[in-house]
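step 3/5: co-fold with flavin-adenine dinucleotide
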Amino acid sequence: MKNWSGNVTFDAALVVRPTNIEDLKSAITAAENVRALGSVHSFNKIADCKDLLLSFEHFPKDIEIDVAGAQVRVAAGVRYGELAIALNEVGFALPNMGSLPHITVVGATSTGTHGSGLRNQNLSAAVCAIELITSTGDDLSISGDELKAARVGLGALGIIHHVTLKIVPAFEVAQSIYLDLPFENLINHFEGVMGAGYSVSAFTTWGELLVDQIWVKSRIDIDTLPGDELFSANLAKQKSHPLPGASTESATEQMGVVGPWHERLPHFKLDFTPSFGDELQSEYFVDFKDARAALQAVHALRHQIQPLLLVTELRTIAADDNWLSEAYGRNSLAIHFTWKPDVPGVTAFLPTIEAALAPFKARPHWGKLFTDNGFDFYELYPQFKSWATYRAGLDPDRKFVNELLGTWGI
Ligand SMILES: Cc1cc2nc3c(=O)[nH]c(=O)nc-3n(C[C@H](O)[C@H](O)[C@H](O)COP(=O)(O)OP(=O)(O)OC[C@H]3O[C@@H](n4cnc5c(N)ncnc54)[C@H](O)[C@@H]3O)c2cc1C
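step 4/5: write tokens
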């Protein structure tokens, strides 16, 4: 069994697909080492283990909307795209979405998955309750302050069968793409570019002078729509794909056509392959106040980056107080790399990028590729030690810890 990208082959001896909570509990108590699978979109071995993998493919896909309380209770296995359609039908929305609707809510929130927007926290910030099964097969419901430890849990606290999310009234979004922003203008007008809409992504192939595309997603109810020019980048007259030359069929509607939030906030449609397909990904989060310096440090490496790169995406994430959120305690810029599927080449190059971003205390995305043993997470995350203690309290025998987490000091 492989992950979405095909770069990870799972080592686990067995995959079990429970159809109810009792079967889930029996499987957990009988196994020595257990992890859960979402939609296997992560690029590293975070979801793997040596013994038992639990898949929620056959688990009931509960989506229970509490209209009065503005919350939704969602089962593990439900994908963002499925949840979004159900919410929109009754006039509700999620505050934000990632670039693709194909990922599961539980898998994505467990790794601190994010969209973009100076006002938007990462997706796990919407979690207001977690229901899981512990290593001893017991039920545990987590709410209130304890969620700071549990929202981004890396799958290491227990096997989650439901989460509850805060929801907001549905809204409409128009997506416009701007082409060829001089790199200098991005640096000089960084807040203006990244704040041009509710959710903004800048795509670059690190050319000498140009940022290839700026995707601006504007909320019709609260944003001023951008005009024909954005800091000298020109409004695209044709549909675009983030990856130069790729078919635009899979991309969500653009050119300012107003539509529902869930058909504009992701870059890709649910029924198409997102991104390129044959690719690897890495992403590093720096403090927004260091954005310019960090971008210049990466730009200086462009001649080494370009032979390995398909495209870079730049996004912003508002600070939160979830202990393992990559945006913990700081408004952040996320510098993302979609790489060609060259595992040895990318693996050999990552330490160079990581060294360039180390002065900015860059935090890697938990679900993407970075150098094992390359980061001191106790230093990068002020609450990492508290989280490790919390995890050990729930699972002293390390039933839910895998080899990769071990290399991260867990
Ligand atoms: C094409 C593409 C585009 C992407 N775009 C974005 C993006 O826009 N923003 C971003 O931040 N990331 C992005 N990612 C990364 C992706 O969001 C994360 O890797 C995310 O974790 C994938 O979710 P998943 O459902 O596939 O989870 P998996 O990869 O299957 O699992 C992730 C983790 O969650 C745990 N987990 C899953 N289910 C459970 C459960 N029931 N109980 C306990 N633990 C569980 C797993 O054990 C694992 O540790 C992208 C990935 C791809 C392939």
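step 5/5: annotate
The radius of gyration is 20 Å.
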